[in-house]
Structures are given as C-alpha cells and as structure tokens.
Amino acid sequence: LFDCDGVLVDTEKDGHRISFNETFAERELGVSWDVELYGELLKIGGGKERMTAYFNKTEWPAKAPKTDEERKEFVASLHKRKTELFMALIEKKLLPLRPGVQRLIDEALGKGVKVAVCSTSNEKAVSNNFPTTNAYMRDMVGIITKKLHHMGEMFLPIFVKGNSLFFELKR
C-alpha cells in the first residue's frame, strides 16, 4: 500500500503550495509560501486551517475582511480557488510520479504482488497517474479519497494483517 502524497507524487511542494501561491498572487495579497515555510505549515491539517493559522500568526492581508465570519468566508474562497488551480495542474498532468515509482509498481505487479495507492487527496490527483494500472488498483479507487482524521486510518480497510506493507510520508 502506498500513500500517494509525498511518497509517489510530490503533490504538496509542487502542487498545493504552487496553487496557494498563485491564488495569493491573483488576489494581490502579498503572500508567498516558500518550500521551507510550507513544510512547517504542513504540520497543520487542512488548507483552510493552514491559511487561517498562518494569517493569525503573521498578519491578515490588508485586503482581508475584519470580522471572524467574513474571514472564514474569505479563506473558504481562497481555498476554493486554490483547489481549482490544483486540479488544473492535475488535468494538465503536471504532477508526475517521482522517479522510479512506475517501474517499482510495474515490477511488483509483474511478480504478482498486489499494489494499492491510498490518499486523502482528490481521486483525480491519484488516478491520473495510474491510468493503465491493473484492475486490482482500479478497484481501490472507491476508498482512497475517504477523509479521515488520521492518515494511517485510510490504510485500515485494505490492510491485510501480517501480509501487507505500507509506505507513508511522515511530516
């Protein structure tokens, strides 16, 4: 079992972070997250929560509303746009597998090893990189995008005790 984000594809650094920065630039917020800062922000679960925590810690942009309720709507609108930009990267296939991943999966499948990809990301973000993979992996798509509070929980429905190995990026 492979976690997609950070293990098979670098969706965070090359996808979500870029999309956040494009959103901030479009709205002329004067905010840009570099790789190091974004790595720290990843300790905060959820994009909306990440932005809110960042703005609360640093300073809300001058263009941001002043009330908590309006700020919540503002952050939701930023996140919606970020997601649109991220999905455009997915559609354009600009988030490829890391080097060696396809070969590893192909060799495992060739030896009869069942392989599954798990993720809390959008289903397209995962399946876009595995269009020709065998039926076993395609069957897993139904459970890969389940939103869970703890990343490891997503592996439980398909983990075969004593006969499974999973790879997950720890942040």
Automatic annotation (TrEMBL):
Gene Ontology MF terms: hydrolase activity
Gene3D superfamilies assigned: Putative phosphatase, domain 2 (1.10.150.240)
A Pfam family recorded for this sequence: Hydrolase
Superkingdom, taxonomy of origin: Eukaryota
Name used for this protein in its record: Uncharacterized protein
Organism: Aegilops tauschii subsp. strangulata
